């Protein structure tokens, strides 16, 4: 394929470098414009007419640099705002947008035969969308293949929790815990459960209160969630009275059984044929295994006691620098090497007790869980730093399922958890200009805007702005983007000073970022603190 790439002066060297890696016949034409994003379809047509028309159509043949009719396609910079179909209409050559970043040129050209390029959407976005579409198609086809699912469920490492297939052959299922569920109102309980399901939870867990018996709330909670949700419901308690009540109310899984309570509650669980999570402990005697061998031996004894029901083995993932996170992982590995029962992996034990953003931690723990053969990823969302953990685990579970099935590392899968940094570092293209360089300093003096002031907040993932005039609220404006809110403010003439407009634009953008990543937004305060001085 013969390809003509149009670019600006600043990016030209990088474009030439990346395009030279291609097996295709690629010609790079550099327009006398410093920044490629400044190009327009009209300017590109003018450039082609000046330098690239066929001899028979170009009166000034001395300027001919390339024969436009010899090219199969034209690639323009991806940052051009307008649709580049105008170039095709004028030149008669298929014209598409290339990537936004010149560093991605090689990838785009490599995949050019497989891509349906667009005149309006940058090529790197198309690649991302295509890979994502293929990834989700693979998972959807797997989850909807009933014949294959029934075949896999005959294997001892796979079980049903409610109607949900769970086990080593399936994607790791995410179990989201509603902590202290009995003290929540029905409205708040259901709101919390719906939030988890929307975030991607496959199952929802009712976390009871340690040391208390709230048996009177259990039947209503289970009934409420089952009436409104189409996911499995579990209960998290060691209290035999609460377990019996939950079993009678139709819970789908019990969390948890150990040596201290299993004999009392097993008859009820066996009668209903409900799966249960088993622990290697005896909390009735305050006994916890000390070594890896003790942990594995104890849980194998629990498995024997619970031989008439399906079980998930929870070796208890320890927080970092407590007993030993490494030992708990080794125990999982040793158990799984000798036993085929599904393994339960309590991710929240680590994320909630580590002062780090949960995104990368959840992805890494999901990868470890996948290598261990774990089947369930369990987490609450109790602290600000772990907000969004359920969604993060739902995504990372899919990543690891794809990685395992493709026998590849979890990279370039079409699904990722790269949120706060860029996947690839772009080469810095500096512009050499013979102009004064001024060091900016803050020199803002507050001047009241006679058109009023604004109170900005984030509510339910939306930006909300209240306009005040003479200290009295006048109107509230809501929107999902800073631009939508700002455009409405301009349309209503609610702002009149330039410095107020720049301030408002900055704050609205901060509010939009906060709403997208689930971070607290406080007007006039920075969103992020510096990691390093």
Task: Give a structural overview.
The protein has 533 residues and is α/β, with parallel strands linked by helices. It has 17 helices and 17 strands. Helix 7 (186-199) links the parallel strand 7 and strand 8 (203-207). It is globular, with a radius of gyration of 30 Å. The protein starts with a strand and ends in a 16-residue tail after the last helix.
Write a concise synopsis of the structure shown.
By secondary structure, the protein is of the alpha/beta class.
Major beta sheet summary:
8 strands, parallel
Task: Give me the side-by-side strand order of the main sheet.
Answer: 12-11-10-9-8-7-14-13
The outline comes out as globular
Find the count of extended strands (DSSP E, 2+ residues): 17
Portion in beta strands: 15-25%
Low-confidence stretches: 55-62
Q: What is the structural class?
A: alpha/beta
Distance between the termini: 51 Å
Radius of gyration in whole Å, from Cα? Answer: 30 Å
In helices, the fraction of residues equals 25-40%
Q: Please state the average pLDDT score.
A: 91
Tally the helices: 17
List the helices and strands and how they pair.
Layout: E1 2-7, H1 12-19, E2 25-30, H2 41-51, E3 73-76, H3 85-91, E4 94-97, H4 105-110, H5 123-143, H6 146-152, E5 158-161, E6 164-167, E7 173-178, H7 186-199, E8 203-207, H8 218-228, E9 232-236, H9 240-249, E10 253-257, H10 262-272, E11 276-278, H11 292-305, E12 311-313, H12 325-338, E13 343-345, H13 348-351, H14 358-372, E14 374-379, H15 389-406, E15 453-459, E16 462-469, E17 472-479, H16 482-491, H17 498-517
Parallel strand pairs: 1-2, 1-3, 3-4, 7-8, 7-14, 8-9, 9-10, 10-11, 11-12, 13-14
Antiparallel strand pairs: 5-6, 15-16, 16-17
Helix pairs in contact: 2-3, 7-8, 8-9, 9-10, 11-12, 14-15, 16-17
